[in-house]
Every structure is written in C-alpha cells, then in structure tokens.
Design a protein that fits this description.
By secondary structure, the protein is an alpha/beta fold. The protein has four domains: about 1-150, 2-Layer Sandwich (Chitobiase, domain 2), CATH 3.30.379.10; about 155-520, Glycosidases (TIM Barrel); about 535-605; about 615-765, Sandwich (Jelly Rolls), CATH 2.60.120. About 25% of the residues lie in helices and about 25% in strands. It contains 18 helices and 40 strands. The strands form eleven sheets. It has an eight-stranded parallel β-barrel with strand order 8-9-16-17-18-19-20-23, surrounded by five helices. The protein starts with a helix and ends with a strand. It binds acetamide. Acetamide binds near residues 329, 330, 379 and 396.
Length: about 775
C-alpha cells in the first residue's frame, strides 16, 4: 500500500477511535446507591446503532425507559434485535435484579418490572453523563463489562416534600420524582396541606381553592428575627386534580408510590380559614402567614368528620397508594380544652382527656380509610392517648415512637430529626443559605442506622424503612429545595438500599464527587461541601491540639495560625496542630496551584478550663450532642448564627448540672457562657444559674446569678468574682446548676411543651 494511503487510513482510524468514549477504567464504577455485589470483567460492550433491545411483555416500561434514555441522550438508534435482553427470573426477589454486561450481550434479569427498572438505573450510571442532557456527541459508547447482583435492604425508601409552606411547579415535582427513581427510592411522601396553604383541589369544597390555597403575605427572614416582618404579597396556589393524576401516572411509570398527606387534627388553619365551622371557636381565622405551630385545630363535630371523609374520598380517587398519611403531629390542645362542645364530647365518649380525643379522632379516620381498603400512616404523636389498631407510625421526634410502635406490633417508618431532616443546615459555614436551624451534615446522614438499637431482631421486622424530610419554610425556590436535598438524598438512598457491610463513608464521598458531574448535567443545584474543612479541638496525651479534615481525597490542607489567609506556600497540614495559646487558625483545601474550597476560620480562646475535666449529669439530646461535654471547654465557641453546630449542646426539658474539675487549684476571675434563646424553636435561656465553687481548703462557696434575658437569640452570661483579691483562695472545682426554663407559656410557639436549653463554651479566666 502506498505510504500516504496508510497514513490516511491510520488517521481515519484514530478519528474513529476518538468517536467512542472509551470508558474502561480498572476501577469499580461508582454507582449510587452502591450495589451489593459487583464483579468487574475485562473487555467492553460497544453500544451503537447496531444494538437492539428485546423485552417481553412484563418489561415494557423498563425497556422503554432504557431505549428512550439512549435515543434521547445520543444519536444512537436502538434496533429490534436482542443484544440487550430483559429476562424474567421468577426466583429473584421483587425489587432485585442482575445486570450482566458481556462484550456481545447485556442481560437484565428480574422477577418483576421494578427490578428490571433498577437494573436500568444502574446501567444508566455506567453511561457518560452527557446522556442525561441529550448531549452525547458520538455514535458509539464503550461500556465496561461487569456483573451486578443487587437488591434493597429496606422496602420503604422515601423522600418527603412539604408544598404547604412553599409550592413548586408540576415540572419540578416530576423532576423530584425522577431523582428518586434514579436513586432507586420508591416513595414520595407528598405533604399537601398546612396552616399556610391547602394545595390539593377538592371539588366538593371550592373554598379550599378560593381561600385555603392562598395566604395574604409571608414572613421575611427567620422566625427568630424580631420584630417579624412580612413581604405584603399574596402567595399560594394548588395542584388541580388533573395535574395530580398526571403526576401520579408519571410516578407510577418510575415505580415511585406517592403517599399523600392530609394533616389532621392540627396544622389545619388554612382549611379552618376557608370553613370556620371546622374549628372550635367558629371565629374567622386567616391562612397563616408565618411559620410554627398554631392553636387552630379541627373540632370533632359531624361537619368536620363529613368534610374529612369527603376530602379523603377525593384523595383516594387520585392516589392509588396503600397508605394515606393523616398527619397527627403538633396538635395543640388549648382549643379543645376551652371548648364546651369538646369537653362534652370527651365525657360522652368516655375519653380520658384531650389526648384521648386525639386518639379517638385518628382512630375514627383510620376506620373510615380501612373500610375503603386503605391503611393510615401518622406522625409519632398518634401514639399519645392510644394508637389506632392498624396504623403505621412515622417516628420523627427521635426513635422512641418507632420503638414503642414496633414493640406493640405496628409497622414503622423512621425519620428522626437527628438524621433525616434535610431542612437543617448541612455546613457550619456562615454563608450557608438561611435554614430553619439544626445541623445535619452529609456524614451524619450516612451514619444513620434505621433500625433502633432497642429493637430485637424480630421487632426490627416492623421497620419498613426510612425517609428524608424537606420542610420548606425557608425554601421558596426550587433550586433551594435541590440544594438542601443534594447530596444528602444520595446518602439516604445508600443507607436504605445498600447493605451496611457494603457501605464505607470514604468510598461514598468519592462516589458523590463523581456524581457531581451527573447532577450538573441534570441541572440540579447540589450543595458542594466536599472541599470544605471541618476542625475539632482534640486532646492528645493531655495536650490540646486542633484536628483538621476534609471530605475530598487526594487534596492538601494548608493553614496559618496568625489569622492570615493561607496560600500555596503556607504550612501543609499533616497531623494535629498543637495549640498552646489563643490564636486564629485559618485553613483551606488546595490542589497543586490553587485554593479550591472556602477558607475555614477558627478562633481559639485558650482559657483556664482547657485541658481540665468536665462532666454533665445528663446526656445532651441525640440531635444536639455536638462534641459532647468536652466541647464546652475546648476553647471554641459555637456559631453566633445558629445553635445546632458541633459546639452548642442542647437538652430538652431537663435541669442540668455541669461540673468542671480544674485538676489543680487555680485563681479564677470569671465564668462565662452563652445560652441560646430562640423561642420560635422552643429554646429558652434559663432564668438563673446556681454556681458552686469548691476551694482549695475544701470550703464550698455558692452563689446565684440571674441571666439577663434580653429579647435576643444569644444571651451572654458572665459571673465575676466581685473581689477576686479578697477571695484569697484558689478554686479546685466548680459547678453550674442550670434549671430548665420549664413549660413553654401560652401564646408562644410550642406552648405546653417542655422548653429546650442550649449552652455554649464555658470560658473560665
Ligand atoms: C414534623 O416535623 N412536625 C413532623
């Protein structure tokens, strides 16, 4: 052959090769949620326009999904041959699948369509991300040969979305469902009614559309910001029944069950605004314009029960789900207490009290729904006053509700605030978008075990699964919902699908970093905290040091201790940094040339309690346990902006005694701390602190100092020795006795409940 011809042929061949996206890494693909079993093979399958899909009747939906995904995502056209084949294997469990990719054949095995659909979702993650937005430019793609055998750990894998506080477009709801399907999650808990808006069209009650669906205006900023300000703009809307039918059908095709939630008896102010006869006072009320828990509650009269049955009839027509969620949470009883009708009702029905009435209410609705072949789910408050016989309990205030319900033989779905509330902050950065409060970073979601330790193996069978919750008070926009959802939903999907022995947080973080590209291509506004730094004070052989870490792997952390901005020439972090004096530490993640994450700044106040011993007579609440008791004397104060970071500790309804043993006698001049006082979040600073000092000669000195309760979120407390010189003694240990504020007073959010106490660093000088 002529040399020029050979060269041309070579060039042509190289161009051709360049057309194929060669994706033959020698590493296991980073599918989320991680499959139980993946076996890599050498070789590759070439997907091009010569490939066909064969599927029998049972697999029409999943095979059509795959065909559309390939044809819409690229210029590849699928034929009628069988290089990709869907095969029925009746012995596989309902949601299980096997995906076998050989060089000449892809086999998808499942016993049902849903298993095949999940195989397709795994195959999707083996294809280039450009398929996701129809921008794959080549005519072929190489897929790594491998075999996956996979099945879920839990049968209920859910995400919730509150559309009462803010409402989102039909298109967004579909994209939300798409994301769940991609992650093999199978339940969308759609929270449709709230004090601030009723969002489902009910034809029999037109005022729900005219009145309950709209509020006059909306609170601006955080509930804790005083005085409250409003935007003056009417807000609202609702989903028509036609839209809901469309969404339900869309979800069905993606194997996502929608569970609608119609709240009762509380969180019902919008409905009562439309039909005052549903309330206890009959007084007109407005659809709520701010957040929180409201006193309005359905009155247990026949009009109400008829209304709710009529509403549920229309709901059941629209939603074929086995479960209907009837709420049951946060139902203040003041209106029932003050209503002659309700008090007579309690007597005439031999009910113990208002909790008994709530139980009667829920059981009556359960009976109605059971008679129509449906089951109820309720938030864990439905345990109070007696659980409805067939109810499934959704445990949110911890796992106690789940434990009690499972022990009583009821199914449970686990969604505690501590691990499942995606409306909480996910980073300690001060520039995070406004959120309700709390702190739930990715790692904590990933550490979640949906089976409470208190359950035996037998009892744990009642745990159907878990879900992440998105309450939208502080998420008016769709991209804000995405930001709070991603990447935490990736962690939730892996907890619920993948077996615990397969899960590894470092590997997961690598998969999340890889998944960013897919999310970007899908146009999803995810939060990226992977290049941020987290820091903790630690004690190393009695010496104080500061530990830094970043989630990303293969990157460097550089730092300074004098408050200056770190640069590529700053010290590289290799192990804990010894801390011996007050300083400001700054650090950031770098690649070879540049800083790639935001700057981490930590002020360290080296005071006299550092390195001493601390104990508290109670454990902080699981959701607010920060860095434990030691975190109160580690030189690091909590965030000013929010109480739920790693430095604040939260206690619910308890008096606490904190003892600090100074190791050696020390002269001290003052004891300082801070309390959080966010009354909207049921948090109250104590009224006073009782102090007790044990002096070097064993004498005990006690004193009480009132807390200066200003109308502010942060309350500073400082106890000065009036005459430190006169004291002429040194202190060996001291304790602070902090009484809980007590019951939340009438007229405040959460009235009648126990108040929280939040305390920050205890600074001794
Ligand atoms: C809830 O968060 N009120 C269930």
């Amino acid at each position: 052959m002529h040399f020029k011809k050979i060269l041309l042929l070579f060039l042509f061949a190289s161009v051709l090769c360049g057309c194929i996206e060669m994706r033959i890494p020698n590493t296991t693909p980073q599918i989320i949620p991680i499959p139980i079993n993946q076996e890599l093979k050498s070789n590759q399958f070439i997907l091009d326009s010569s490939v066909g899909i064969y599927a029998s009747e049972e697999f029409q939906l999943s095979s059509a999904f795959l065909k559309n995904f390939i044809e819409n995502g690229s210029s590849i056209e699928i034929q009628n041959s069988n290089e990709i084949e869907f095969i029925l294997v009746a012995t596989l469990k309902p949601e299980a699948y096997e995906l076998d990719i050989q060089s000449d054949k892809i086999s998808i095995k499942a016993s049902s369509e849903v298993g095949a659909f999940y195989a397709v979702q795994s195959l999707r993650q083996l294809l280039p991300v450009s398929f996701e937005n129809c921008s794959y430019m080549h005519s072929e793609v190489a897929i790594q040969c491998l075999t996956i055998k996979d099945q879920p750990e839990f049968k209920y894998r859910g995400m919730h979305l509150d559309v009462g506080r803010h409402m989102f477009s039909v298109d967004f709801i579909k994209r939300y469902i798409d994301a769940l399907a991609m992650l093999k999650m199978n339940t969308f808990h759609w929270h449709l009614t709230e004090d601030q808006g009723w969002r489902i069209e009910i034809k029999k009650y037109p005022k729900l559309q005219e009145v309950a669906a709209y509020r006059d205006e909306t609170l601006v900023g955080h509930y804790s910001d005083q005085p409250h300000q409003f935007d003056g703009k009417k807000y609202g809307g609702y989903y028509t029944q036609e839209e809901i039918k469309d969404i339900v059908a869309y979800a069905e095709e993606r194997f996502v069950t929608i569970i609608p939630e119609i709240e009762m008896p509380g969180h019902s102010q919008a409905a009562i605004a439309a039909y005052p006869e549903l309330g206890c006072t009959r007084e007109p009320v407005k659809v709520a314009t701010k957040w929180g828990v409201f006193e309005e509650i359905y009155c247990p009269n026949e009009f109400t029960f008829q209304f709710l049955e009529d509403v549920l009839d229309e709901v059941m027509e629209l939603f074929p789900s086995q479960y209907i969620h009837i709420g049951g949470d946060e139902a203040p009883k003041a209106r029932w207490k003050n209503s002659e009708f309700c008090q007579d009702f309690i007597k005439n029905h031999n009910l113990k009290d208002e909790h008994g009435l709530q139980s009667y209410f829920i059981q009556r609705m359960e009976k109605y729904l059971n008679s129509k072949g449906r089951q109820i789910i309720g938030w864990d408050e439905i345990l109070e006053g007696g659980l409805a016989p067939n109810a499934t309990v959704m445990s949110w205030r911890g796992v106690e509700g789940a434990v009690a319900a499972a022990k009583a033989g009821h199914n449970v779905i686990i969604t505690p605030t501590s691990h499942c509330y995606f409306d909480y902050y996910q980073s300690e950065n001060d520039d995070e978008p406004l959120a309700i409060g709390g702190y739930l970073p990715l790692e904590k979601v990933y550490s979640f075990n949906p089976i409470p330790e208190e359950l035996t193996e037998d009892e744990s069978k009642y745990v159907l699964g878990a879900q992440g919750n998105i309450w939208t008070e502080y998420m008016p926009k769709e991209d804000q919902v995405e930001y709070m959802m991603f990447p935490r939903v990736l962690a939730m999907s892996e907890i619920l699908w993948s077996h615990s022995e397969k899960r590894n947080y470092n590997d997961f973080v690598g998969s999340v970093e890889n998944f960013h590209k897919r999310l970007e291509t899908l146009g999803i506004n995810y939060a990226n905290h992977l290049y941020e730094i987290e820091g903790r004070m630690v004690s190393l052989n009695g010496d104080t040091a500061y530990r830094l870490k970043t989630l990303s792997q293969g990157k460097m952390i550089r730092f300074t201790l004098n408050g200056t901005q770190p640069s590529v020439s700053s010290d590289m972090y290799t192990s804990e940094i010894p801390i011996t004096k007050t300083c400001t530490l700054k650090a950031a993640v770098f690649n070879e040339d540049n800083q790639i994450g935001s700057t981490f700044t930590q002020k360290i106040n080296y005071h006299k309690a550092i390195g001493t011993k601390i104990s508290i007579d109670k454990n902080p609440h699981e959701a607010y346990s920060g860095s434990g008791a030691e975190g109160l004397i580690n030189g690091v104060s909590g965030s000013d902006a929010r109480y739920a970071d790693n430095e604040w500790l939260g206690f619910w309804g308890e008096d606490i005694e904190i003892t600090i043993d100074l190791n050696e006698e020390k002269k001290i001049n003052s004891v300082e701390t801070r309390f959080y006082n966010g009354n909207g979040q049921w948090i109250y600073a104590p009224k006073a602190v009782h102090l007790k000092f044990t002096l070097d000669d064993g004498t005990i000195v006690t004193d009480v100092k009132e807390v200066n309760l200003k109308n502010e979120n942060l309350v500073n407390f400082k106890y000065d020795f009036k005459t430190p010189e006169d004291l002429k003694v040194t202190v060996k240990s001291l304790s602070l006795m902090i009484s809980n504020y007590g019951t939340i007073p009438e007229g405040k959010q959460g009235a009648g409940n126990k108040a929280w106490t939040f305390i920050d660093e205890i600074i001794i000088n």
